[in-house]
Automatic annotation (TrEMBL):
GO biological process, one term: chorismate biosynthetic process
Coiled-coil positions: none
Pfam families tied to this protein: DHquinase_I, Shikimate_DH, Shikimate_dh_N
Species name: Colocasia esculenta
Signal peptide bounds: none
Name of this protein: Shikimate dehydrogenase
GO MF assignments: 3-dehydroquinate dehydratase activity; shikimate 3-dehydrogenase (NADP+) activity
């Protein structure tokens, strides 16, 4: 069919994520209403706007742009054609596609879009998984409230703040005080869960069991010293899981008060980061870093103080 006009709407997300989603909604709603009359392209620039480029077929956008080779973008925030086709599988996205995604800041480092969109595709689930760069999680959820946005993962730094945004919180997530998985029920209500603690703890248990993987009678963590650096969402999940498995838990955190509060809630001990300098490791102990130090791209970073006796203990 001959298309007489294509209207292009571009906008910059200069105002953080409060105005960005409103802006996206306007574009998407506009596209929905007008798409049968006027072909439209609605795109938001920069990293925050990546979802508008990926979800264009879902909301009726006429086309989206991508760059053939990373580093040669003609506008800020353009994905590569390879990412659109292979990571987000844009050819599978249609009006019925459900949208899942990771809420975080930063979020661009995450491998989840690749992993989960691939999992949806290989199991025949009509869904896509995208990154949401979010400043304020309550504002974000109040705008991204349609059933199209079927569920979320949540990471740094929102795992604790998002608990209050859920209509219902699973009892374990409530005890931990952090939510990393949110499901939108058919009635629109959000239900929060914590899957970090099972994921992290079972991975550590499997590694410790090694070739004795079938010996699942007792946890290898039982009675062990388990030192957790960090007292945020991930630290809380690990502390809860380690306590459940009978480990002796010690929390060390930059903000000592948070270490103390978490240690009290799991019946453990608290340390400041500086105190780790004189900490004497114990045979078979586990040391887990749950801080943001060591995240991509600064993967050699460590929260351990220089000269600590823990230097020889591998960080989990
Ligand atoms: N692989 C996974 O499945 C998985 C799952 C969950 C989380 N994570 C990772 O875990 C990390 C933390 O996530 P989160 O959700 O727990 O974040 P969070 O709730 O924001 O907690 C961040 C923690 O890092 C500490 N921290 C931040 N900057 C620091 C610095 N400059 N020096 C020392 N400590 C510092 C904070 O200490 P204060 O209390 O002093 O601020 C706090 O304990 C992230 O890298 C996240 O990607 C991975």
């Amino acid at each position: 069919m001959f298309l007489p006009f294509i209207y292009s709407l571009y906008t910059y997300s200069l105002f953080g994520d409060f105005l960005l989603p409103i802006c996206l909604e306007l574009l998407f709603c506009g596209l929905k209403k007008l798409k049968h009359q006027i072909p439209m392209i609605g795109l938001v620039m920069r990293e925050r706007g990546l979802i508008s480029r990926i979800l264009c077929p879902k909301f009726g956008g006429y086309l989206t742009f991508a760059v053939l080779e990373g580093g040669k973008e003609s506008a800020s925030g353009q994905p590569t054609t390879s990412d659109l086709l292979n990571v987000y599988k844009i050819r599978r996205i249609g009006t019925d596609t459900r949208i899942y995604g990771l809420i975080g800041k930063p979020v661009g480092y995450s491998k989840s879009p690749f992993l989960l969109t691939e999992a949806f595709s290989s199991t025949g689930v009509n869904a896509v998984y995208v990154p949401y760069l979010v400043d304020d999680v309550a504002d974000f959820l109040s705008v991204y409230s349609s059933p199209d946005f079927a569920g979320f993962s949540c990471t740094i730094p929102h795992k604790e703040a998002i608990v209050k945004c859920c209509s219902e919180v699973d009892p374990i997530a409530k005890s931990i005080g952090a939510v990393n998985t949110i499901v939108r029920r058919p009635d629109g209500n959000l239900v929060g869960y914590n899957t970090d603690y099972t994921g992290a703890i079972s991975a550590i248990e499997d590694a410790m069991r090694g070739s004795h993987a079938n010996d699942s009678s007792a946890s290898p963590l039982s009675g062990r010293l388990f030192v957790i650096i960090g007292a945020g969402g991930a630290g809380k999940a690990l502390a809860y899981g380690a306590k459940e498995k009978g480990a002796k838990v010690i929390i060390a955190n930059r903000t000592f008060d948070r270490a103390r509060d978490l240690a009290m809630s799991v019946g453990g001990d608290a340390l400041s980061l500086a105190e780790l300098e004189s900490f004497h490791p114990e045979g078979g102990m586990i040391l887990a870093n749950t801080t943001s130090i060591g995240m991509q791209p600064n993967i050699d970073g460590t929260p351990l103080p220089k000269g600590t006796g823990l230097a020889g203990v591998a960080l989990t």
